[in-house]
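Deliverable D4.2, example record:
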Amino acid sequence: MRENVHLATMDIVWSQGIDALSVAAVAEKSGVHETTIYRRWGTPAGLVVDYVTSETHQAFPVPDNGNLHADLVELLGEIVEFVEQPLGRLVLQLSARRDQPGYEEVREQFRVDRFEAGMKVFEHAAQRGELRPGLDRNLALETLIGPLYVRLLLTDGEVGAELVPEVVDLVLPGMLA
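Output generated by the structure prediction step:
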C-alpha cells in the first residue's frame, strides 16, 4: 500500500507539480481509499514528506581522505550531486516552502543528515590538528554550503564541479590552525 501511495504521489508531483497534489488525486491514482490516506498521512504535505524522508534519510557518506581540504571538496561534491538530481531539487523546493505547513520535517532531516556528516569531517580534522581552536563548526559548514544554495535558489547560477574547490579554497584558510 505505502509503495503504491508513494508512486502515485510522486507521479503527480513530477508530472503536474507539488501544488497539484491532493489526497483525492493520490487515492484515485493509487487505488488506496481516501480515508486510509487521510488516516495515515493526513495531508498532501504528509504524503510528500513520507516519500522524501524514506528516500533521503540514510547515512550521508563521511569523507575521510586524511586532510580537510580533500574531505570538504568531497563532502560538498556529494551535496551538489544530490541537489542536481530531481529528488534533490524537490527537497530544495520543499525546504524553501515556508507557505506550506508540514514541510519543516523535510528541511530538518536534510539539514541534520548533511550537518552530521560535516561535523564528523570537522572532528576528523580536529583530531589531525588541522582546525583552529574555537572554530564555530556550524558557521564554518554554513559558510561552505551557502554559496551552493545561493546559486541553486537565488541566482540560478552554475553549480558545477569547479565551484566546489573554489568555495573550499576561499573558506578553508579561515578554519585552519
